[in-house]
């Protein structure tokens, strides 16, 4: 297994260095994707990349394209570098990087699978986000006809690169913004990629910057769910047959 981290960055130039530092001990390359940031953030990101030239590969997008586009560019770069598994992590430092080791070990044991985080929130987490998530994950169980995915929204997960790119190629449309993590995960699950869930602590620092805009992004995510519901209906015979096969095996 040949692994690297991919960190998409938008407006988080001030926290990316501490995220990079928390990952150094794992000794894997790190791809940082500058997703069309403004001057201040860009300068910060470049400084970090120059500080760790042996570890960081910087991918720069001229225009902001959204987290989904940033991740795809990062994964394409990883594929060029001969990487087989990509560990996605947010640049705002919300995810507990100490858990990365457990995820990597799981991925080594199950290289065919996605190792996907599910959040253990600290008390300061906004209630509307936590409750919204419970509702959203109920929908995920519905569209995948399984409870394999414990959380579809978290950006802390390991993807097998080949399967990611294959599903990307086969899909007519994948959300490039806040629905991207949900969209690709469900589609990979439909495609037959196993999903293993592992917990990870998620914090909400008081001065943290969030790109999440409640109305705009909730509407966007609702659109993603609507498309996934249609996709599920179209795949119903396949999903039902798979479910029956699985229950017969037990
Ligand atoms: N939202 C957003 N994030 C981007 C974009 N491009 C890259 N990112 C990165 O994607 C990650 C997630 O963005 P956040 O703004 O933290 O969104 P979130 O974690 O879903 O929302 P919070 O729970 O409120 O923090 C961060 O590493 C961002 O820097 C973009 O265009 N929009
Ligand atoms: Mg965040």
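Q: What amino acid sequence fits the structure above?
A:
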């Amino acid at each position: 297994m040949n692994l690297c981290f991919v960190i998409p960055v938008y407006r988080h130039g001030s926290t990316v260095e501490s995220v990079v530092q928390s990952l150094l001990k794992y000794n894997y390359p790190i791809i940082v994707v500058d997703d069309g940031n403004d001057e201040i953030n860009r300068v910060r990101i470049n400084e970090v990349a120059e500080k760790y030239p042996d570890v960081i590969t910087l991918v720069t997008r001229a225009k902001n394209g959204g987290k989904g586009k940033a991740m795809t560019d990062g994964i394409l770069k990883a594929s060029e570098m001969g990487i087989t598994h990509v560990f996605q992590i947010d640049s705002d430092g919300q995810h507990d990087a100490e858990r990365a080791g457990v995820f990597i070990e799981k991925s080594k044991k199950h290289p065919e699978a996605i190792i996907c985080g599910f959040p253990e929130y600290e008390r300061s987490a906004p209630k509307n986000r936590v409750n919204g998530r419970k509702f959203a994950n109920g929908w995920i169980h519905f569209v995948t006809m399984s409870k394999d995915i414990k959380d579809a929204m978290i950006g802390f997960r390991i993807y097998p690169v080949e399967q990611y790119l294959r599903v990307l190629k086969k899909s007519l449309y994948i959300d490039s913004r806040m629905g991207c993590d949900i969209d690709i995960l469900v589609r990979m699950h439909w495609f037959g990629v196993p999903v293993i869930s592992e917990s990870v602590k998620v914090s909400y620092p008081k001065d943290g910057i969030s790109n999440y805009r409640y109305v705009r992004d909730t509407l966007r995510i609702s659109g993603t769910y609507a498309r996934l519901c249609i996709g599920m209906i179209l795949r119903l015979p396949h999903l039902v047959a798979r479910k029956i096969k699985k229950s017969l095996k037990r």
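Q: And what stands out in the fold?
A: The radius of gyration is 18 Å.
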